[in-house]
């Protein structure tokens, strides 16, 4: 995207200029209300820019046929409200709606469900699931959608927010393995700095006022992250050798 602006009444976001490389993993980070979801919605085409242009594979995003687009890019939104109580099997199968129906469709749905550990839920309806179960079902839907293509794009808004800490790493590992094998790019809004550092190679920081800053993931991102959130971060290395950044208590700050 180049020089993209979005206006919501008094709120104005941008200019956003951002290039996503094929196969890369990029976390979008920033304080509440900075415009992370807005940026993701612009990238996915679910909201149109007020000005500027977004191109996908060298074609304006607005010129893409939605069916064709869905064969290359999948979007996982923050909320999973569904108007009907569909079964888990059907919801995962929705990832395949733009494909010609074939025998392999059921296999793909089953394999995607298996990867996300929801096989035992297949016959249940989604309105009966817990938040964490539902998050895994929708991730399985994304897997089904981009199962048999390469060089696709997965856009996600806080994909593991509803998932317990014991499962978060497993899901992110599974997601990254799925994407790496197919060379899909993964772009995700994240609130957990440590998950962003562990699984994503590039961090796009959305500062208040919507200035974007791109930094490589790693210890050198510390200063930028401290400025972004207005907190000091302690840098540690855990027993597995992973980098961990922990916000230090700061009670002098007021709720904005
Ligand atoms: N459709 C809309 N109409 C009016 N204002 C909107 C709309 N969508 C978002 N906003 C406003 O734009 C600002 C940025 O919203 P956005 O959801 O992009 O922030 P965010 O960085 O993802 O925040 P959070 O971390 O809280 O999820 C917020 O102040 C929000 O209230």
Annotate the secondary structure layout.
Elements: E1 2-8, E2 11-16, E3 25-29, H1 36-44, E4 51-53, E5 55-56, E6 59-60, H2 66-70, E7 73-76, H3 88-93, H4 103-115, H5 131-145, E8 153-157, H6 165-182, E9 185-189, H7 193-199, E10 202-206, E11 212-216, H8 222-229, E12 233-237, E13 243-247
Parallel strand pairs: 3-9, 3-10, 7-8, 8-9
Antiparallel strand pairs: 1-2, 1-4, 5-6, 10-11, 12-13
The chain binds adenosine-5'-triphosphate (ATP).
Summarize the structure.
The protein has 256 residues and is α/β, with parallel strands linked by helices.
Structure characterization notes:
By secondary structure, this protein is α/β, with parallel strands linked by helices. Helix content is 32%, strand content 23%. It contains eight helices and 13 strands. It has a six-stranded mixed beta sheet with strand order 7-8-9-3-10-11, with helices on both faces. A three-stranded antiparallel beta sheet has the order 2-1-4, covered by helices on one side. β5 and β6 form a beta hairpin. α4 packs across α5. It is globular. The two termini are 30 Å apart. 34% of the residues are buried. Bound molecules: adenosine-5'-triphosphate. The site of adenosine-5'-triphosphate (ATP) has 11 residues, from α1.
Rg estimate, integer Å: 19 Å
The helix tally amounts to 8
Bound molecules: adenosine-5'-triphosphate
Straight-line distance between termini: 30 Å
Structural class: alpha/beta
What is the mean pLDDT? 93
Strand elements, count: 13
Major sheet, described briefly? 6 strands, mixed
Oligomeric grouping of the chains: single chain
Shape: globular
**SS strand fraction:** 15-25%
Order of strands across the main sheet: 7-8-9-3-10-11
Sequence stretches where pLDDT stays below 50 over 5 or more residues: none
Task: Estimate the helix proportion, in percent.
Answer: 25-40%
The run of helices and strands is EEEHEEEHEHHHEHEHEEHEE
């Amino acid at each position: 995207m180049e020089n993209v602006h979005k206006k919501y009444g008094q709120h104005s976001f941008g200019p956003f200029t951002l290039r996503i490389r094929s196969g890369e993993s990029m976390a979008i980070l920033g304080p509440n209300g900075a415009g992370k979801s807005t940026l993701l919605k612009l990238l996915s085409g679910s909201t149109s820019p007020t000005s500027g242009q977004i191109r996908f594979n060298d074609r304006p995003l607005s010129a893409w046929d939605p069916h064709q687009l869905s064969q290359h890019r999948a979007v996982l939104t923050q909320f999973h409200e569904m108007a009907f109580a569909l079964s888990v099997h059907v919801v995962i199968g929705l990832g395949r709606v733009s494909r010609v129906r074939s025998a392999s469709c059921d296999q793909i749905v089953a394999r995607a469900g298996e990867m996300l550990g929801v096989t035992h839920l297949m016959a249940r309806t989604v309105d009966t699931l817990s938040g964490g179960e539902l998050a895994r079902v929708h991730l399985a839907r994304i897997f089904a959608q981009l199962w048999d293509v390469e060089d696709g794009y997965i856009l996600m808004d806080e994909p593991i927010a509803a998932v317990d800490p014991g499962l978060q790493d497993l899901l992110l590992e599974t997601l990254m393995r799925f994407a790496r094998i197919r060379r899909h790019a993964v772009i995700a809004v994240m609130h957990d700095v440590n998950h962003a550092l562990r699984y994503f190679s590039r961090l796009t920081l959305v500062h208040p006022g919507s200035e974007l800053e791109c930094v490589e993931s790693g210890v050198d991102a510390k200063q930028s992250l401290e400025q972004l959130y207005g907190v000091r971060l302690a840098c540690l290395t855990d027993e597995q050798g992973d980098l961990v950044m922990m916000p230090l208590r700061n009670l002098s700050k007021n709720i904005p």
